Amino acid sequence: MLGSIKCSASGAYYLRGQWVPADAQAPAALAAAGVTAEQAGQAYKGTMAYGILTAHNTSGNDRDLRIKFDTMASHDITFVGIIQTARASGLEKFPIPYVLTNCHNSLCAVGGTINEDDHRFGLSAAKKYGGIFVPPHMAVIHQYMRERFAGCGKMILGSDSHTRYGALGTMAIGEGGGELAKQLLGRTYDVARPGVVAICLTGALPAGCGPHDVAIALVGELFKSGYVKNKVMEFVGPGIASLRQDTRNAIDAMTTETTCLSSIWETDEKTRQFLTVHGRAGDYKPLHPAELAYYDGVVSVDLSKIRPMIALPMHPSNAFPIEELNANLKDILHECEENVQKLVGRSDVKLDLCSKIENGRLRVDQGVIAGCAGGLFDSIYEAASILKGHTGGCGDYALSVYPGSQPIMMELNRTGVLTDLMASGATIRTAFCGPCFGAGDVPANDALSIRHTTRNFPNREGSKPGDGQLSGVILMDARSIAATARNHGVLTSAADVDYDAPSPAARRFDASVYDKRVYRGFGHPQPDAPLQYGPNIAEWPAIPALSDDLLLQVASVLRDEVTTTDELIPSGETSSYRSNPMKLAQFTLSRRDPDYVPRAKAAAALESARTAGEVPAVLADTLHALGLDTRSLSRLHIGSVIFANKPGDGSAREQAASCQRVLGGSANICYEFATKRYRSNCVNWGLLPFILAADDSFDGAPGDFIYVPEVREKVARGDEEFPAVLLHDGRKTDLLLYLKNTNAEERELLLRGCLINYYAAKAVN
Q1: Helical segments of 345-389, H only
Q2: pLDDT of residue 504
C-alpha cells in the first residue's frame, strides 16, 4: 500500500534496542551478544505485556491466566444487562471501581422515556452497589477513563470493544458483559497467555498527517491477514517520542479494528505530563521492554512514509491513501460499490459513489469529528487551525464536532478554538458516541459522510437497507476532514493545504464539572438503596440447561467473509431497547437477514410443543428421517442455530449472543470466530461455539435440521469432536463439529445453560 508498514515473516528478539530475527541464525547471533540458550528461552518474559499480565494473574502459572482487573467501565448500552446478570448471580457490591458512563444512548432515538430510565437505573445501581456514575453528555467512555483512571501498569476491563488505554501504559481489554459480570462476582478473566507482536515506530509524521492516518494504515495492513488476532500489540521504538500523547491515544483506540486482544506502549515524559495535567502524577511509571524480549512478530512502521488515508465503506480495513484514491477514483469507487452491493444483499438498494465524482474529484455530503478517536483536544485544535478564516459548510455539506468530554470542551472554549470552529460554520455537539454507531448526524439516503470515528460498518451511519435507506461512511483524520470542509466538501488531503500546524500551549484540565456532577460511590455501597426501574427494563428470561441430545434448526446462513456483531444485532436506534432482552431480540439480524427472527421463533415453537408433549408434523417427519422415534424426545432440546463463515468482528456487545439465546438459539457454527470476545459472549450465554474444519463444506440452508447426539455427555467429558447429522432436503449428511479450547469452567457453564444459571448453582452449592 505505502511501503510504510512491513510485517516480519517470523518472530524476533528485541536485544538492547536491536532486532534479531528468530530464524536458524538466531542462536548464533544471540550467543555472540552474550545471550545464553536459557535466557533466550525465557525472553518472552521481557515484554511489557508479560509483566503487566503477570502482576494481575492469579492462576499461579503463566500459560493459563486468571486475570483480575483494577477497574471496569461500561456505557449505557451495556451496563443495565451486566448489572441485571450480576444481580441474578448473587451480586452484593462492586468489588473494584466500576464506571458507568452514559454516552451511547444519551439522545432518545425512538421517543419515550426509556433512555433516561436506564440512566436513572445506572445511578441507583451506583448508589446501591458502590459505583461511579458519569451523567449523559459529560464524557465518552474512553476519554473519561483516560482522564480519570488509566495509569501505567494497570489493567482495565470494559464492555466496549474500543477499551484501549495502552498509550497511557494500561493494558485494557474490551469484552462482552458476561466477563464484566464475572469480575463483579469476584471471578477472573480466563485466557491463555496471548502472543505479543511488536509495533516498532520510527520516524515522524509528515505535515497534514494525524492519528487516524496511522491507524487506518495499520488496520488496512493487519486486519485481513489476522497478523495480530487475539494478540497484544506492543508499541516500541524511537518514533513514539515524535507523537503527541493525544495522537498516541487516538491511534491506540483503533487497535481494536485489527482484532488484537489488547495494546501497550512504551511511556515517556509526554505520558507523565498527560497524567500530571490530569492530577494523577502518581500513576506514571516508565514502561519499556527488558534488554531481551521475544515477540511473536514485528510490524515496522516508518511514520515519515505515512500519508493521509481513508477507509472506504464498509470496513476500516478498506484503506487507501487519499492520493491513490484520487489517482484511480472511478475504478476504486466502482469496486467499492460492488462490494457494498454484495454486503447489503439487495439489488434494489445501492450506494452510488461514482455519481459523486465532479471534475475528477469526489464530493462528500457531511463531515464529523467525534468520539474516543476523533474528539480529542489536539485533533480538534489542529482541525480548527486548518479551517480558521475559511468556511466549514457550504450548501448541502455540513461539519459537526463532538469533543470527547466536557473538560476538553471547556479547554477548547478557553483557548478560543470553539469560537473559531463555529465562525467557520461548524456546529458543536456534546460528548456523544452516536456518530460511531449510527445514532447521531445520520446522513441522507445515498449520502456520503467523512468521519474521524472508529467504524464504518454497515448501518453505523444510521441507514436501514431493509427500508430502502442506504448511506456510506469514509473514515478520515480530522485534519483531512477540515481540509475537505475548507474545500467546500471536495475530498481533500490535509497534506494539500497550507496551514500553520499549531503547537498548543500547555494544556489545562478543569475537573470541576466532574466534581459537581459525577457520582463517586466506590467503597461506599448503600445496600438498602432501591434500584430505579423504568417500564422497559426487564429481567432475563429463564434459560434451559444443556440437554442430552440437541436438535438444531438452521435459522440463518451467512456466507460473507466476515459477519460483524453489528449485523448480528444492529446498533443505532435499536440500542434504545437494550434493557429489555425480548424487545431487543426482535431486531436480531434485522438488517442482514430479516427472516431470522421468525425462523428462530418457529424453532422455539417446536421446542414448546415438545415440552407440552405434542409432536407437530414437521417434528415427526424430522425424527423419522433421522431414524429416531418419539421416545427420543425426552432427551432432546430443539434450538435454532446460525451458520456464518467468520462471525464476531466489531462491537463487544453481548447482545449479539444473548439476543439469539432468548429467542431459543442453542449454537453457532462457523469456520472461525473473528474475535475472542464474541466467542466468550456465546459461551457465557450457553451458545455452543461449534467450528468446522477448514476443508469441510457446510451445505445447510435455513429450515434444515442438525442432530447432535450425546452433546451433554461429550461437553462434560471435554470432547473436542461432535459427530452430527445434517438433514437437508430429506437427505442425511454426516457433519463433524468441533468444540475446542474450552476449560473446565466454560464446559460447566455450557452444561448449566448460561452464566446466570452457573452462578445460581454455585450459590446453592
Answers
A1: 371-374, 377-387
A2: 65
Answer CATH for 5-62+194-305 from 3.40.50.800, 1.25.40.340, 1.10.10.10, 3.40.1060.10: 3.40.1060.10
* 329 dihedral zone (left: phi>0; alpha: psi -120 to 50; beta): alpha
CATH of domain 69-187: 3.30.499.10
Q: What counts of helices (H) and strands (E) characterise the chain?
A: 28, 34
Distance of alpha carbon 477 from alpha carbon 217, whole angstroms: 11
Which residue shows C-alpha cell 432427551? 635
13 touches 43 (CB < 8 A): yes
Q: Parallel, antiparallel, or unpaired for β 71-74 and 98-100?
A: parallel
Range list for CATH 3.30.499.10 in the chain = 69-187, 309-313+322-492
Does an H or E element contain 512, and which? Answer: helix 512-517
Amino acid identity at 322: I
Complete DSSP assignment for 80-104: HHHHHHHHHTT--S-SS-EEE---S
In residues, how long is the chain?
Answer: 765
384-399 as b/e, with b when 16 or more CB fall inside 10 Å?
Answer: bbbbbebbbbeeebbb
Let me know: does 556 contact 589? Beta carbons within 8 Å.
yes
Low-confidence stretches of the chain (pLDDT < 70) are 1-2, 107-110, 392-394, 504-506, 763-765
Q: Which residue has the cell 462471525?
A: 647
CATH architecture for segment(s) 309-313+322-492: 2-Layer Sandwich (3.30)
SS3 146: helix
The answer to whether 394 and 488 have CB atoms below 8 angstroms apart is: yes
Report the C-alpha gap between 287 and 271 in whole angstroms: 10
Domain 549-764: assigned CATH number: 3.20.19.10
Locate 663 and state its grid cell: 429467542
Calculate the alpha carbon distances from 216 to 308, 320, 356, 501 in Å.
9, 8, 23, 21
The 10 Å Cβ neighbour count of residue 495 is 18
SS (H, E, C) 673-696: CCCHHHHHHHHHCCCEEEECCCCC
Please name which of 325, 344, 164, 191 lies closest in space to residue 258, comparing C-alpha atoms.
164
The grid coordinates listed for 396 are 448541502
DSSP conformation class of 672: -
Q: Is the C-alpha dihedral spanning 520, 524, 525, 528 positive or negative?
A: negative
pTM of the model: 0.91
The three grid cell numbers given for residue 495, joined into one nine-digit string: 497534506
CB 599 within 8 A of CB 556: yes
What's the pLDDT tens digit per position in 628-687? Answer: 998 899 999 999 999 999 999 888 878 999 999 999 999 999 999 998 889 999 999 999
